[in-house]
Design a protein that fits this description.
The complex is a heterodimer of chains A (about 260) and B (about 500). Chain A has a domain at about 75-230: Leucine-rich repeat, LRR (right-handed beta-alpha superhelix) (Alpha-Beta Horseshoe). Chain A is about 35% helix and about 10% strand. Chain A has helices spanning about 25-30, 35-50, 50-70, 75-80, 85-95, 140-145, 160-165, 190, 215-225, 245-250; strands at about 95-100, 105, 125-130, 150-155, 175-180, 200-205, 230. Chain A has a seven-stranded mixed β-sheet with strand order 2-1-3-4-5-6-7, with helices on one face. In chain A, helix 4 (about 75-80) packs across helix 5 (about 85-95). Chain A starts with about 25 loop residues before the first helix and ends in a 9-residue tail after the last helix. Chain B is an alpha/beta fold and about 500 residues long. In chain B, strands 5-6-4-12-13-14-11-15 form an eight-stranded mixed β-sheet. The radius of gyration of chain B is 28 Å and the shape is elongated. Chain B has helices spanning about 1-10, 10-15, 20-45, 75-85, 105-110, 120-135, 140, 165-180, 195-200, 225-240, 300-305, 385-400, 445-465, 480, and strands spanning about 65-70, 95-100, 115, 160-165, 190-195, 215, 220-225, 245-260, 265-280, 285-295, 325-335, 345-350, 355-360, 365-370, 410-420, 425-430, 435-440. The chains are: A alpha/beta (about 260), B alpha/beta (about 500). Chain A: It comes from Physeter macrocephalus. Chain A: This is Distal membrane-arm assembly complex protein 2.
């Protein structure tokens, strides 16, 4: 194939000691150069031996299952404590932060979740910061139950893709602020279904590597959501400079061609 | 010589008559084996029949458990699910026979690529729901170790069906069927009904004249790249061990069995033993011995079924019931309109039958119109009729979206619908008389969006004997004989 052979990985490989945990995921989706030799040997073996291929497929399946396990739905907590606590529990478990109405931001501290969480049965959740969490399409169920959510931050979430964005219409009544910066799987096709969010006032779509034309997308999204302030690419990004401007701007920041 | 001497020596003279018969039996079998080996050696030696210069690797294999006629998305989907649902890995040998490896006329790749759950039959809705789940998790289903993940380029923008006064009640009934309360599981289609005022507010570029009701799919609907799905399936299916053959099916060799039903009626059951696959651009053919044949040949399924003898009999009997699938030509036009609908535009289906959707970011749109029976173009070739756009498609589009009055057609192409003239729904499952033949065809324009689920259903019927996950009994072949139409009201 002509496309770069980015291998199918969900988390950074175990033997690649540097990137551990979820934070290194965004990098792992891009084609990487360093564990080249190890990868080539494994590929060679997998092409020739069924056992090696089976082991690799098994390891891949395990990674998939790990993400699914993180995104399971907490039905017991939902029934006992209500949807707000269930959603907050889900986010805190994943490593994000939650803000209930009239309360401070709650973050997961090292020793486990604070006991106050269980008392907040009737208090709606106002803001969620799920940056870097491994939320996927299934896990979004827990978030969509938070009907009074006003601010949602999904920055650098490696599994949030266009399909997830198509579900956000359920929060259309309350959502005012949304941040999708740095998500590697979101493209302009997913951004097209944000038009349901008519109450949105602030949208951050900067640094989306999968969007093919950031400047044009910015303009189209601004047209689609007239009441919303869209932060993201500069509309001139992606335009080629004219010859006289090029010589003038050699010292300034590089513009991608 | 040594053999003969040994046999004489060990004959009745040495070991007594009691063992004579046993020994004679085994010497005969041994004789047969020896002569076989002798024949083989003679053929390999110079002057024999076997020639090492004669290479048969371009021909399909001589034996295969399942032969799937047609390598489009439906055929590959059946192959994938067969290999996935087989009890033991490598238990079933599958051969996919495809006439054109460039897929230049295949309906799959020429399709607009939409997927929706807004159907009227619950089976269609269930098929689409599963297929959309398959597409969403395509990198788990079709993962091949060390190959890059698939990017289907799915646009989750939804379908917007507009209905006039007459169609409004039908649309309401359909939406009731589509919503989650109708299904035992929590899922269903997420569809919202909109009045003309709401429609005008949401999509200001629509002219709501003549529209009484609109149904808008909010989730799991949109369009994607069918070529990517096809290549993903091909790659995965090859990694699972399915054999591909570039050739055309020219003949079926079958045997008949005359039987009587319990009421004394005479029935002729047939079983296909061999499929003759002719190699491209050559007269060479290979008789492939097979146990099961699956017809997934799209627009040409009718011809393949005739080859198999389906429909050869007195009209009005089960033997005389043809497979009513024929190719119908449909045009797709791509135009540019600078003031057209923006990023939020769904796939809009007008009550007149015209439809369009956004393509890319540059104000380009794709669309078409299904002609009435009298205006059907000749399906002999895939030439595009541009006057059709001027006369039939453009007026409806311009009426519905005033911005489309100034547009410029950039490109156009034509593709085939595997049109089921009976009720425009798919034919799935076994044939009642030809015992080992299965169908997966006739979807009349919504085959691509249901292909993953239909593949699974056909694989289940072949392996388990009945539908397990989605019951597609209304789509069996026998409905053509019994006259039970499974009519779909929401056809574009």
């Amino acid at each position: 194939m002509a496309a770069p052979r980015a291998s199918l990985r969900l988390v950074a490989p175990v033997w690649n000691g540097g990137t551990s945990g979820i934070r290194g995921l965004s990098r792992a989706v891009d084609p990487e150069g360093s564990p080249r030799k190890g990868r080539t040997l494994l590929r060679f073996l997998a092409d020739r031996f069924y056992d090696v291929e089976a082991v690799r497929e098994y390891l891949l399946q395990k990674q998939v299952l790990k993400v699914l396990q993180k995104n399971r739905s907490f039905t017991y907590i939902k029934e006992r404590y209500g949807p707000y606590v269930a959603g907050a529990y889900f986010i805190l478990k994943q490593g994000g932060a939650v803000k209930f109405q009239d309360k401070e931001w709650m973050r997961p501290n090292g020793r486990g979740l604070s006991g106050e969480l269980w008392k907040l049965r009737e208090v709606p959740v106002e803001a969620v910061d799920a940056s870097g969490c491994a939320i996927n399409y299934q896990g979004l169920d827990n978030l969509l139950a938070l009907k009074e959510l006003q601010s949602l931050s999904l920055q650098c979430c490696p599994h949030v893709d266009d399909w997830c964005l198509s579900r956000l219409h359920q929060l259309a009544n309350s959502l005012r602020e949304l941040s999708l910066a740095g998500c590697p799987r979101i493209s302009e096709r997913g951004l097209a279904c944000l038009h349901h969010l008519q109450n949105l006032r602030r949208l951050d779509i900067s640094d989306l590597p999968a969007v093919s034309n950031p400047g044009l997308t910015q303009i189209l999204v601004e047209e689609m959501l007239p009441n919303c302030e869209v932060l993201g690419a500069d509309w001139a990004q992606g335009l080629k400079l004219g010859p006289e401007e090029q010589t003038r701007d050699t010292a300034s920041s590089p513009i991608p061609a | 010589m040594l053999r003969r001497a040994l046999r004489l020596g060990l004959g009745p003279g040495l070991l007594g008559r009691g063992l004579g018969t046993h020994r004679e039996g085994s010497t005969l079998a041994w004789d047969g084996k020896v002569s076989e080996i002798k024949k083989k050696i003679q053929s390999i030696l110079p002057g024999g029949a076997w020639s090492p210069l004669c290479d048969t690797s371009h021909l399909p294999p001589e034996h295969s458990d399942v032969v799937i006629v047609g390598g489009g998305v439906l055929g590959l989907s059946v192959a994938y699910w067969l290999k996935r649902l087989e009890k033991q890995q490598g238990a079933i040998r599958v051969l996919v026979v495809e006439r054109d490896h460039t897929y230049s006329q295949a309906s799959t790749v020429l399709s607009v690529g939409g997927i929706r759950q807004q159907f009227s039959l619950p089976e269609n809705i269930q098929l689409s729901l599963f297929s959309v789940e398959f597409l969403r998790n395509i990198n788990e289903y079709l993962a091949v170790v060390d190959d890059p993940p698939l990017d289907l380029q799915f646009n989750p923008s939804g379908y917007l069906f507009l209905a006039s006064e007459e169609g409004a009640t039908i649309m309401e009934n359909n939406v009731k069927v589509q919503r989650p309360t109708h299904f035992s599981r929590q899922e269903g289609a997420k569809v919202c009904l909109m009045s003309p005022e709401q429609l005008q507010k949401k999509f200001p570029w629509i002219n709501t004249e003549g529209v009484a009701l609109a149904s808008y799919g909010l989730e799991n609907e949109g369009w994607f790249d069918p070529w990517c799905l096809l290549q993903g399936l091909r790659r995965k299916v090859q990694s699972m061990g399915v054999l591909f053959c570039h050739g055309e099916v020219t003949r079926f060799v079958s045997s008949s069995n005359h039987m009587e039903t319990t009421s004394g009626e005479k029935v002729t059951l047939r079983r296909i033993h061999e499929v003759h696959v002719k190699v491209d651009r050559s007269q060479e053919y290979q008789p492939v011995e097979c146990a099961i044949v699956v017809i997934a040949a799209g627009a040409w399924s009718g011809q393949i079924a005739e080859l198999a003898g389906i429909g050869k009999g007195p009209p009005g009997t089960l033997q005389g019931t043809r497979l009513p699938v024929e190719p119908r030509k449909r045009y797709v036009y791509l135009w540019h309109c600078p003031q057209g609908p923006g990023l939020e535009a769904p796939l809009v289906a007008d009550p007149s039958g015209a439809y369009f959707r956004r393509e890319g970011l540059g104000n380009n749109y794709l669309g078409g119109y299904s002609p009435t029976e009298e205006e059907e173009p000749d399906p002999g070739n895939l030439e595009v009729d541009h006057d059709f756009f001027q006369e039939k498609v453009w007026p409806h589009l311009a009426r519905r979206v005033p911005a489309f009055e100034t547009l410029k057609v950039r490109r156009a192409w034509a593709g085939y619908y595997d049109y089921n003239t009976f009720d425009q729904n798919g034919v799935v499952g076994p044939h009642p008389l030809v015992v080992n033949m299965y169908f997966a065809t006739g979807f009349s324009g919504h085959g691509l969006q249901q292909a993953p689920a239909v593949g699974r259903a056909v694989a289940e019927v072949m392996l388990e004997g009945r539908f397990q996950t989605i019951d597609l009994s209304p789509f069996l072949f026998s409905r053509f004989y019994l006259g039970e139409k499974a009519q779909e009201h929401c056809i574009i």
